[in-house]
Structure formats: structure tokens, C-alpha cells
Amino acid sequence: MPSVRDIARMAGVSPATVSRAINNHPTVGKEVREKVISLMNEKRYVPSVGRRQITNIAFAYADDISLGSPFDAALMHGMSECMERFEFDLMVLDLKRVLQPHETYSQMFIRKGICGAVLRTSSQSKKVCERIAAEGFPSVVVGERFDNPLVNFIYADSRRSSREAVEHLINLGHRKIAVGLNVVEDSDHLDRLQGYKDALAAHQLSFDSRLVLQVPARRDGGEQFIRRLEVMPDRPTAVYLTDPVAAVAAMVEAQRRGMRVPHDLSIIGFDDAQLRFLTFPRMTAVCQDAREIGMAAFAALQSLIAEAKSTRRVQRVLGTEFEVHESTAVPPVLRHEGVSIAM
Amino acid sequence: MPSVRDIARMAGVSPATVSRAINNHPTVGKEVREKVISLMNEKRYVPSVGRRQITNIAFAYADDISLGSPFDAALMHGMSECMERFEFDLMVLDLKRVLQPHETYSQMFIRKGICGAVLRTSSQSKKVCERIAAEGFPSVVVGERFDNPLVNFIYADSRRSSREAVEHLINLGHRKIAVGLNVVEDSDHLDRLQGYKDALAAHQLSFDSRLVLQVPARRDGGEQFIRRLEVMPDRPTAVYLTDPVAAVAAMVEAQRRGMRVPHDLSIIGFDDAQLRFLTFPRMTAVCQDAREIGMAAFAALQSLIAEAKSTRRVQRVLGTEFEVHESTAVPPVLRHEGVSIAM
DNA sequence: TGCTTTATAGAAACTGTTTCAGAAACAGTT
DNA sequence: AACTGTTTCTGAAACAGTTTCTATAAAGCA
After folding, report:
1. Nearest CB partner across the interface for B256, out of A70, A252, A280
2. What is the tens place of the pLDDT at every residue in B12-41?
3. Where in chain A is the domain with CATH 3.40.50.2300?
4. Residue B339 has what DSSP assignment?
5. CA→C1' distance for B107 and C4 (Å)
6. CB contact (8 A) between residue B112 and residue A89
7. Which of B67, B77, B89 is closest, CB to CB, to A77?
């Protein structure tokens, strides 16, 4: 584990200059700074205080929305639960705010005494994660999947469960099934769309893009979804909403407009917490365990930090579970034909 | 701002010993350690690295439940929003886990390079907060109120709003109103009970302790509440539940058991996020703004850190808001007498 | 008494950071 | 061409905290 003085010797400069490079002082020449930073990434420099190494782990997010949702809270919960046995401490960082102009991400992390980062991202900030990975800083992304082999990530793939969910609807007799997708096309929402398409294909049903409605992953998104659904000619009898809050809000909005759930409209939602038990009727949903993702992310990061080699990649895909509750039933049309109501 | 060497000189020991005292090395004598720690608290020692002062703020919680709830997520959201303009970073700490045997809290904070802490607590860990305050470490408690003049806190008093809420029920015609309290008797839950009593007293209604049900502040607590309500002789026509999740769960459970809300049972809940809009019907609720509390807590802590004097106290009480939505109506008895239904 | 063990603490060597001072390059003036 | 002043960049030194090695004093035991 090289020190600032080691890096200084390798770069042919003084320790003071290396320190200034880390801390983004404007008085350091561009070539010198770049040389120092790349050397530090290459040699896996970790800051210390005195003879003690600093061991902070960052929970870093790039979007304003990120902090404050139950998903993030559960992620942190899982992380901190795993961290108890280690001497790590958890720091919460807003990447956009802490990054100074002309500063590398590695540089910023080192400046803050961080030796590894769990990156919480959406599709909007995927580039940021790729850049951090390219810089060689130990990091694990949660919430997105990457084709880029350099990026480490823990990801819950909901395609299969989504297919199960939609097949459940098809088996109940639904033929016209709408999907509510996030306006931001994250990997996970696209997975869910794929699962939807898989189910249709498996049952020889054709895909109709008019049944895919993009709404914000918020309460008003779910409400908007139902309003748009209501004015559709030949209204769908079932829907799959891929965001927890939007799903619950849609269920509420449907009921507010006089539709009975699941009697008039079957709803499948998505849940990463306990929301599915807090609706009436209880919400049939595709479920992911955010706490488990947080725990897996920390475990991966920990092993990345432990092995000094930068070669290893962690690209782990967890599953999701489809849970049948009470917001799905036989569609109204079939019910007139004497089919028993499965509630 | 004294350095380790200054403290060492004052205590008549070497810098090495002071460092060991901070880091809880077992080789330091008891008297020496105590002398060093008390000197550091007295002289307001803040750790540095090189010539730069360390500026970490802790979000410290003492109960296992604490992290992971929307309330905590919203608190942190508010804090980090305020922190952006300052050079502070946010660290998340589990007080019980990070505290080493025979270690003072101040010592632990200093050891981790923390210059101030927002303490998230419930009544179970009030002693911890008082101890930290008594040690003189800059801290602000959220979520509890203290009589102890040493403790700084930001607190949302829900007594008045609770009284408004219960008076709303009384004005609708309810005479038998049950209350669901947390099994842990936090200040805020006791406030709500007081508000309930205030409302009864203002309307010359007598208080009946059998109408106060203590249930855990969780989903199953809300469910339990309804089950216990159902078997009561002369069942109450309205309830006030003082926890968000328990309130929503109770509403769902009531509906599952065939009670119509608000037709058969009026429900008032508590909300610190957006849950009241995610139920059908929308939940009439006493609301507190967790983000605002987080922001106020950070602001207070910031001013405590800025002024070196330890004399100032921050004991700020915010308000809550009572919001009428759709889960409250005229009780069934009156409805038979021809009173119009207010939904 | 003499030896060993234990508890305690200091000196020195090592982290990283900043202040002060200096070198080198460039521009403007005489 | 020579002098001055400014800007840009860097290094030496002085400072921050921590740990390893070493030393001392007290206690325990033969």
C-alpha cells in the first residue's frame, strides 16, 4: 500500500504536490495532476491518517430523487447491517454536489478518505458509473445492469417474475393487458417490459405498443396512468405497473373512479418494501428485496477492497419473486359466462 | 482549536498517550484516559489531518429499527439537502455497534473524525442522548423531547393537531373514540394521547382508559388493533392511530373484515410521508414534515459547531398539521337519524 | 534479594496537509 | 537589451494524528 511519498517518488514530484493533486488545488499543473491521479489508481493508493488506514465506504447517489425513497433506506439498512462486523463506516454522498470542477471521481473519493463506493443509480447516471469503473476505483453499482464488462453491479432481474405475473393474468383470462412503465427507461423497467412481451409471445398474443403507457414513477404517475387508461377505447381489463408507488397510486385512483379492484380491473404492481400489504385489496406484485441487494453490494465491495488486484469483476444478478395476492381476478367479460371468481 | 499536542501538554502526558486515549487502546491508564477525554471535551478538541480540520456530521441512531423507515430516509434527505452548501459530509452510525467497551461517546465520535451528531432516538435510548449531551459533545436530537436542559432537540409537537383531529371526530358526532398508541411510550405518542384527552375534556367527555390500545408501530400492530377493536363490547365508531404504518394497516384490516371506512368506522392516522394519499379512501391524518425536521436539525447543529461556546441550547418545537381527507365521516348511529353523510 | 511479568507511557518514525518561499516563464516598461 | 512585476508551478519545512519500538516502574514469585 503506497503512501503519498511513494507516489511522489514514482511521479518525480514532491509529496506536497501529490497532496495538492488529490485535493484539487488549482495550482497544480494539468499534466502533473493527471500523472499523479493515474498513478494512484494504478497502484491502488488508499489514504491514511498517521499509520492507520482510512476505511470509509460511500453510499453515493447521482440523482436528486435517490435519497428518501424506501428503496434507498432499505438498501442502506442492508449495507449497514453487513458492515457491523467490519471496521468500515458508511458515508452518504451526493456525487453531483461533492465533485469539484475538473476533478476525477477517484480523486474525490480519495480526497474524502473513501476506499470503496456503492453507487446508486438510474439510467440517467449510468455514464457516471462507467466512468468511475473505468478509473479503476473499487465500486459496485446497484439498481442498474451494465453491458460494460468493467462495471461491477448487483442487480435484481425481474424479467422472469414479470413474465410469470403477466402469464398469471393471461391464465385468468385477460387478453388486453396494459403496462405502466417509468418515463426513465431504467434496465429494471425494461426487464419488466420484456417479461411482459415474453408472456404475450408464449401465449400467441400480439404485442400492442398502445398498451404501454409511460408515466413518472411517482404517485401522480400512477394517477395519470388510470386517467389515460379510462379514456382508451376497448379498455384493458388488467394492468401491470412496474413501480411501487405508482402501482399503489393507480390502484387507489382506479377505486376513486369507481372501478372495483380486482372485479373491474386487475392490477399487478411492483414492491421493494411492504407496500403490497398496505393496500385493500392486498396487491399482487413482483417483489424485490432491497435489503438483500444492499447486503450483497456491500459484500461484493468488501471483497473488491480486500483483494488488491483490480482484475476481478462482480456482476451478480439476483432474482425477484412474483407474489399473488388479491388485486387480480378473472376479467369481467368471462365472469358473465359463468366462470368462477378467483379472489 | 487545540491539537493533540496541546491536549498532551495540558494533561502532562505525551501526544502518543492522548492518541491512544482517543482510540481506546487498553494500555492507557484509567485516570489518564479520563483526564484526557474530559480535557478534550472542555477545550472542544476537533480532530484534523495535517493542517486540515475534519468535518464529518453523523446521523447516529441507537435502535435497530431506526434505519430503513421512510421517516429516517426523509430526515437524512432534509439533512443532506442543507449540507450541500457546507463542507460537511454525512456519516451514518449505529451507536450500539460502533461504541467500544469502556468508551465514552465523545471519544467514539472524535475517534471517527466526527464534529457533530444528529441523534435519532426513541424513548428507549433517551439516556444515551442525555449522556452524549452531558459529555458536552455537539449534538441535536430528533424524534424526542427532553426536559433535561442540557439536551438540544428539534421536535414536532403533535398535541394540538391531535386535539384538532379528535375534535373533528367529536364534531362529526362520534362519542366513543379509540386510540392506538405505540407500545413504546415515545414523547410524540404521549403528545397524541394528550391531544386526545384535551379534545375529550373540551367537550365534557370522560376519558376511558379501556379505549386506549397499545400496539406495536408496525403493520401487524395495526392489524392487531382492529382485531382487538372488533371484540370490544359497544364498539367505538372512530379511531385515532398515532403511527403511519399501523394506521394504514388498520384501515386495510378493517376493510378486510368487512367494515366500510369511513361508513362503519372513521379512521384518523398519522403521516410523515405520503402514505395518506396511497390509501382508499384517502386517510385523514395528523402530518409532520420529516424533511423539515432534518433540515432544522442540521441547521441547529451547524450553529452549535460554529460557535465554540458550549453554552447555547437549541430546543425547538415545530408543529404538525391536521389534514382532513376521506377516512372520517358521521358515525353510523347518527346516520340513521337522517344526518347527511359527509364523505 | 533477585528475577520475571505486567501495566503504562514516551521517543521516534511514519501517515497526509498546508504555509512559506523560490524558481521559471511571460509581459510590460525604460 | 535590461529591469521590473506578475503568474504559474513546485519543494522544503512545519504542522496534524497514529503506531511501533523501547523504557520504566510496580507487582508477583522463587
Report:
1. A280
2. 899 899 988 888 888 888 888 888 888 888
3. 46-156+293-319, 159-288+322-336
4. P
5. 35
6. yes
7. B67
* Rounded Cα distance, A154 and A141, in Å: 6
CA B48 – CA B40 distance, rounded (Å):
14
The helix or strand, by DSSP H or E, that contains position A249, with its residue range, turns out to be: helix A244-256
- Domain B159-288+322-336 carries which CATH code? 3.40.50.2300
Residue with cell 442492508: A78
Residue A255, chain B, CB below 8 Å: the answer is yes
Residue type, B36: V
3-state secondary structure of A248: helix
Which of A92, A249, A280 faces B76 most closely, judged by CB atoms? A92
Å: B26 CA to D26 C1': 18
Q: Do B219 and A76 touch (CB under 8 A)?
A: no
Contacts of B80 in chain A (CB under 8 A): 67, 92, 94
Q: Do B279 and A252 touch (CB under 8 A)?
A: yes
Phi and psi at residue A90, to the nearest 5°: -100, 125
Outline where DSSP puts E strands in A69-145: 89-94, 114-120, 139-142
The H or E element containing residue A225 is: helix A219-230
Tell me the pLDDT tens digit for each residue of A317-333: 999 999 999 999 999 87
Give nucleotides in strand C with any atom < 7 A to a protein C-beta.
7-19
The helix/strand/coil state of B34 is helix
Query: What is the C-alpha separation between A37 and B111, in angstroms, rounded?
Result: 28
Give the torsion through C-alpha atoms of B303, B308, B313, B318, to 10 deg.
Answer: 10
Distance between CA B62 and CA B94 in Å, rounded?
6
- Mean pLDDT is highest, among A61-75, A84-98, A137-151, A211-225, for A211-225
CA-CA distances (angstroms) from residue A205 to A189, A329, B8? 21, 19, 79
> Rounded distance, CA A58 to CA A115, Å?
8
C-alpha grid cell, residue B240: 385515532
Where in chain B are all domains bearing CATH 3.40.50.2300? 45-156+293-319, 159-288+322-336
Does B26 contact strand D, using a CB cutoff of 7 Å? no
Contact map slice: A 1-30 vs B, CB within 8 A? 19
The answer to whether the CB atoms of B89 and A94 lie below 8 A apart is: no
Amino acid at B24: N
* Peptide bond preceding A262 in cis form (omega within 30 of 0): yes
Q: State the architecture of A46-156+293-319 in CATH terms.
A: 3-Layer(aba) Sandwich (3.40)
Q: Is B12 exposed, middle or buried (0-12, 13-18, 19+ CB in 10 A)?
A: exposed
Contact with chain B for residue A70, Cβ under 8 A: yes
Any chain B CB within 8 A of the CB of A277? yes
Kindly state the helix (H) or strand (E) to which residue A200 belongs, with its residue range.
helix A187-202
Q: How far apart are CA A240 and CA A191, in angstroms?
A: 13
Q: What's the pLDDT score for residue B337?
A: 54
Q: Are the beta carbons of A89 and B84 separated by less than 8 Å?
A: no
Question: How far apart, in whole angstroms, are the C-alpha atoms of residue B89 and residue A92?
Answer: 7
The CATH number of B45-156+293-319, from 3.30.70.100, 1.10.3720.10, 3.40.50.2300, 3.30.40.10, is 3.40.50.2300
Tell me the three-class secondary structure of B91-130, residue by residue: EEEEHHHHCCCCCCHHHHHHHCCEEEEEEECCHHHHHHHH
Q: Got the DSSP string for A58-85?
A: EEEE-STTSTTSHHHHHHHHHHHHHHTT
B223 in contact with chain A, both atoms CB, cutoff 8 A:
no
- A125-151 pLDDT per residue, tens: 889 999 999 988 899 999 888 999 999
